[in-house]
Design brief:
16% strand; 7-stranded mixed sheet; Spore Coat Polysaccharide Biosynthesis Protein SpsA, Chain A; 233 residues; alpha/beta; single chain
Length: 233
């Protein structure tokens, strides 16, 4: 019998880590994978993913790249409509940065209590963490703490456990790229609870990121600034 937690995996031009993740989770969870407009070069990988998902989940697709936030919203909408018996959703990145044990641990937290939005938080002190990630997280955590009274240790985590009952609320939030995940932290209808997870970063040769350092960072800080202004008002 599958868990009542659905695993949602947004994917844009992924590696083989996606199919490995599907193989490892499909027997225990219903999986929803969203192909966010990847180029034709990745068609074979998504064809393999779709075959692996047969009877174990579903593959959704955008005609063009719309951003991680848009992919999450597409997944939320599908789960809200087609999985009414679900307790909630665990979002997991497709690049292998989240261990299977931690994905299962976040699922267990959700099954235990639906009163929080759970964040799988990493330790940014290790030498394996890229300096850009360290600096970006340090700055956003500082702004959240000093300006918004949100005491968080990892604002960039994609590993989150979300109760089913707030999926519709989250779909109404603005932002279609990485800034959507920031909106989720600021405007969550439920309190946030952090769960320590393993910190995994691939080698520089294997690492692939679609985060646009300047434009995506500016979008995130713009949202934080607007939230700060609303708090002042």
């Amino acid at each position: 019998m599958k868990s009542k937690v659905v695993i949602l995996i947004p994917a844009f031009e992924p590696t083989d880590a996606l199919t490995k993740l599907i193989k490892a989770l499909r027997d225990d969870f219903f999986l929803v994978v969203v192909n966010d407009g990847s180029s034709g070069d990745f068609a074979h990988l998504f064809a393999k993913a779709e075959a692996l998902l047969k009877g174990q989940g579903t593959l959704l697709a955008h005609n063009a790249n719309r951003g991680k936030g848009a992919a999450l919203k597409t997944g939320f909408a599908y789960i809200e409509k087609h999985c009414p018996d679900a307790v909630g959703v665990v979002t997991a990145d497709c690049d292998g940065q989240h261990s299977l044990a931690d994905i299962r641990a976040l699922s267990a937290q959700l099954l235990n209590s639906e009163e929080f939005l759970y964040l799988g938080v990493r330790d940014f002190k290790g030498s394996e963490v890229p300096w850009k990630s360290k600096l970006g997280n340090l700055l956003t955590c500082f702004i959240c703490r000093t300006c918004l009274n949100l005491n968080l240790s990892d604002t960039q985590t994609g590993l989150r456990a979300i109760p089913y009952r707030i999926l519709r609320d989250l779909q109404q939030l603005s932002g279609n790229r990485f800034e959507f995940e920031t909106q989720m932290l600021i405007q969550s209808p439920l309190p946030l609870r952090e769960i320590p997870v393993r910190t995994i970063y691939q080698s520089r040769e294997l690492r692939r990121t679609h985060f646009r350092t300047i434009s995506d960072s500016l979008s995130i800080y713009r949202i934080l600034f607007k939230a700060w202004l609303r708090r002042i008002a």
